[in-house]
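ok so for the tutorial part 2 we go from a plain amino acid sequence to predicted C-alpha cells. step 1 is just haveing the sequence, like this:
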Amino acid sequence: MAARPDTMTRSADNTPAGAARRTAPRRGEAREALMQAALELVSTEANFSAISLRRIARQAGVVPTAFYRHFEDLDALGLTLVEETFRELRRLLQDADLSALPLKGLTRHSVELFAHHVRDNRLLFQFVVKERFSGTAPMRAAIHDEIRVLTHALAAIFARFDEFSHIAETDLRMLSDLVVNTVIALSERILEVAANHPEDTALMLRAEKQLRLIFMGVGQWESRPEDRDETDRPRADG
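step 2 — the prediction. this is what the C-alpha cells look like for a chain of 238 residues:
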C-alpha cells in the first residue's frame, strides 16, 4: 500500500492538532495569517465551503470582525488563494526558462521541477485540487480561468521551440492543454504519496513518459492550412 503524506490529527475540540491556533498575529500580518489558517483547515476538511469564517479567524488568532478588514467574504479569501497558487506557478514557468532547454531534456526537467514545486506548496495545491470540482461556482470558475491562462502561457513557451515551428497556434494550445492536464493529474497523485517513496518514483517516470509520448506525436502532427494564422500565434516574448 502506498505511503500517505503526514496528516494532521485532531484535538478534543476538533481543531487540527498540527495546525494549532496561533497567538494573535503582529500588525500587518493578519491577512497572511487568515490565508494560512484557511489552507490548514481545508487540508483536513471536505472543502473550503464547509469551513466558517469564525473558525478561520479563530485558527488565525484574530477576532472574526478583523476578517473583513482584509477580505469582503469567504469567497474573496478563497479566490485570493487560487490567484496565489497560479501566480506562483506562472512565475515558476517564467523563471525556469524552459525554452532554453533542448526538447529531449524538457520532459524530465519539467516533471522534476513541477513535482518539487507542488511539494513545497502542498497546502496551496491541496486547496486547488479540492476546490476544482467541489468548490463554489465562483471558485470553480476562477480555477478554470487560471488553468486557461496557464495553458496560453505554456503555448507561448512552446512557440519558441524550432521543433514546434510547423504547429499552428490553435494546435499549440491543444498541445499545452494536454501537458497542463497531465501535470495537474500528477499533482493530485503527488499529494497522495510521500516524497522518495517507490510509488513517488513511479509517478515521476509515468508522467515523464506521458509527456514524451505527447511530444513524439506532435513531431508527426501536421496542422491544417486553415489553422495557420500567424497573426494569432502565441508571441515568443510571452
